[in-house]
Every structure is written in structure tokens, then in C-alpha cells.
Amino acid sequence: MRMFPAMRVKISGLDPHQQYYIAMDIVPVDNKRYRYVYHSSKWMVAGNADSPVPPRVYIHPDSPASGETWMRQVISFDKLKLTNNELDDQGHIILHSMHKYQPRVHVIRKDCGDDLSPIKPVPTGEGVKAFSFPETVFTTVTAYQNQQITRLKIDRNPFAKGFRDSGRNRHQQCQL
Amino acid sequence: MRMFPAMRVKISGLDPHQQYYIAMDIVPVDNKRYRYVYHSSKWMVAGNADSPVPPRVYIHPDSPASGETWMRQVISFDKLKLTNNELDDQGHIILHSMHKYQPRVHVIRKDCGDDLSPIKPVPTGEGVKAFSFPETVFTTVTAYQNQQITRLKIDRNPFAKGFRDSGRNRHQQCQL
DNA sequence: CCCTTTTCACCTAGGTGGTAAGAT
DNA sequence: ATCTTACCACCTAGGTGAAAAGGG
């Protein structure tokens, strides 16, 4: 499934005439598993993290493009897909439920991206830079723990419009 | 709007490790305008062609890719879009209605595709080859002239499924 | 007990030909 | 008279949270 809200970034300082790949991966914040304590509305440590999963990378679909192209637009990662299926073969990013994660944005000069692949770790070294934003750390769930999150999603995600204005007309049907 | 059925090609003889763009353009077959004569079920010349339109090229969305990748798959042009609006700014291919056209497939070695653009003619010369298939010539219309074409489209295009099995249940509605 | 999966109605987004109205 | 456009019901394709069912 997709992330919502999606990560969106603006980039400056690229060489306008150089080609780049932009990619995202998602790394564990710590070595812990969490549970949500309802009465205190807090995430609490609930043991050690599950075993690591295969590394996956989301390569932004506009890649490769020139620095000029990347800098002209807001770069959105709304098509990135997550799964908790460790055997996934769709190229989705694999995460454990009930763990804390940090998304990272990678800017990769085209000549350094030869072994860039959705199923290999992001290359490191010359011509590759990584950026992460602490305010984007999140905790994975399979069911919402927090009504404020549910409200945010229903109010802001266009695909959830069916749950706004909820009471009326929702269960009427027509048998022809 | 899209073409249906779409052009689909298989390519062989590429260098597996060379990168290529694949593109399509659509060129006039002759300098004539046509009309359909119903009683004889034939297209007849009905004057000279309208004035030329801005050149457009559909660059296959998998471009660029290696010869190996291109040769492994059937290459479909089903996302290509046509319009009769000469002022189109969506990058669609512009055609006159009631004219005869021939689609062409272009194979462009990556290093020869530097000035490849949806709004410029396909480059020619070394590293660029064009292919056309006479059986794919077609005549443009804004309304179908021929019931066999209508039937083919309804029977084969998944989006037209609503017109199959036509009589039953089509006009029932439910007023809540 | 708590977490996960499945199924559902309800959306977004957009591709069909029919039909009636519009244009030349 | 003939071609074109705008609108419509009906599809495909797939993204929502709720609720029920499943699982350790």
C-alpha cells in the first residue's frame, strides 16, 4: 500500500545539465518493536526488532532527469508502495509492522547509478548523497491505533472521500 | 483519444547491451481528404488534404532501455494518444479527420537521441531506423462510418464492455 | 488479548460508444 | 447534408477505512 501523506521534497544546488537519479529507501530508526498504549496515547517499547528484511529502493519514476528538471518541480513520492510481505515480488518496500522507520532521499549522479536496482542497497560514495528529515519518522501498523491519524487520512486523502460526512445514505441499496 | 486496436511489434537484431529509444510517429499516406460512401462501403477521394499539422512523436514510455529488454517483450503502443486539436498542448499526436495515415516505428540508438522530443520530427541518419507496415494504414474519423469497425471495437476493447450484450438491463435505474 | 487478513461499499481517474445538439 | 462536439451511462483499474473473520 501507499504512504499517506507522501514525502515531497524540493532540491537545489544540482548541476542543471547533469543527469541524476532520485531514489528513496526506508531504514529502521532503532532495534525495537513497539506497541501503542491507548490510555497514555504513546508508543512504548515492546521487545526487540524482528529480523531484517530484504533491502528495497524506490527509484523515482522521473529518473533519470537533468538537475534543471528536478529543481524545477516538487518531487513527490506518492507512488511508492509498502508491504509487510517479506516474500514480495512486486518491488515494494518491505517493512515490519509495529516498528519505527525513517525515509531517506538519495540523489545519485547518473554515472554513479549503474548498479542502481530496486532490489539492491543504494550505492554509496562519490556522486551519491543521502538526506533524511527527522520529522518524517513514522511507526508502521496494520490497523490504526489513533483516531487523529484516522481523521487526518479521511479528511486529506482523496480516495477516502467516501468516509467523510459519514452517516447519511451509506447503507442504502437497490435490488433490481 | 487512444488508437484501438493498438500497434504492437516485436524487434530483433538489436545489440543486447546498447541502449535505445523506441518511438512512433504517424505520417500522411497521400495528399487527399476522404469521405465514406455508404452504399458502396468504400472510402472515396473528396478533395485535397488539409494543411499540415505540427509534427509530434510518441516516445515509448519504457525508453530508454537496452536492446535485450526491448527484444524480450512485445512492444505495445496502446498509450499513444491522438487528437484533432491543432492547438493541443498535451503532447498528443495531431491528425486531421477524414485523412489516411501510416504509423511508423523508429528505433533510435541512445547516443543519437539527444534531440529526441515529443514536439520535434524524429531525427534521421546514422543510428536511427524507421519501419512501417502497410497493413496498419488507417483513415481517421470522428464518428464511425462502418458497423464492422464498431462491432470490432465493442467486442475487443475492454473499456467498451458496457455495449456488449446490448439489449438487457441497460436503461434500468434506481431512484433512492 | 492483540495483531493481521479479507471483504465490502465508496471513492478517484479515466477509457468506451450512443445520442442529441451544434457547426459548417 | 455531413461532420464535430458535449454529455451520458457503463465499463476498467485501483486506492480508501470499516467491519468481520482469522491467527498466534
Helix content of chain A: under 10%
The largest β sheet of chain A comes out as: 6 strands, antiparallel
Low confidence ranges of chain A: 167-176
- The strand count of chain A comes to 12
Number of helical regions of chain A: 2
**Global outline of chain A:** globular
Explain the overall architecture.
- Two copies of one chain form a homodimer.
- The first copy, chain A, has two helices and twelve strands; from the N terminus they run E-E-E-E-E-E-H-E-E-E-E-E-E-H.
- In chain A, strands 2, 5, 6, 10, 11 and 12 form a six-stranded antiparallel sheet that branches. In chain A, strands 1-7 form a two-stranded antiparallel ribbon.
- The longest helix of chain A has 10 residues.
- Chain A has 176 residues and is mainly beta.
- In chain A, a hairpin with a 4-residue loop joins strand 3 and strand 4.
- The C terminus of chain A is likely disordered.
- The first copy, chain A, binds a DNA duplex (24 and 24 nucleotides) through helix 2.
Can I get a quick summary?
2 copies of one chain form a homodimer. Chain A is built from 2 helices and 12 strands.
Task: Summarize the helices and strands and which ones pair or pack.
The structure is a homodimer of 176-residue chains.
Chain A: E1 8-9, E2 19-28, E3 32-37, E4 42-48, E5 58-59, E6 65-66, H1 67-72, E7 75-76, E8 82-83, E9 93-94, E10 100-109, E11 128-132, E12 138-139, H2 147-156
Parallel strand pairs in A: 8-9
Antiparallel strand pairs in A: 1-7, 2-5, 2-6, 2-10, 3-4, 10-11, 10-12
The structure holds a DNA duplex (24 and 24 nucleotides).
